[in-house]
Amino acid sequence: xxxxxxxxxxxxxxxxxxxxxxxxxxxxxxxxxxxxxxxxxxxxxxxxxxxxxxxxxxxxxxxxxxxxxxxxxxxxxxxxxxxxxxxx
Length: 88
What we know:
The chain is of the alpha+beta class. The chain has helices spanning 60-73, 76-85, and strands at 5-14, 19-24, 27-32, 46-50, 53-58. It has a five-stranded antiparallel beta sheet.
């Protein structure tokens, strides 16, 4: 099963091509933020990530709650393994 996982935007890598670096559980990866409005993709914002794309912006509390729920469901580790194994 594939889930969207929350990540924090830590850098805008390539604004022209809508690429940002996000951090999830200490792992940083480049993702595409082109599906978001420009004002919804700033450093420090939290987004839901699915297959390398930011699907929507969420607030910090929702990000923390979602990560906690994924951990409790046992789904978090599979998603983190996929995130860690993705090519930048």
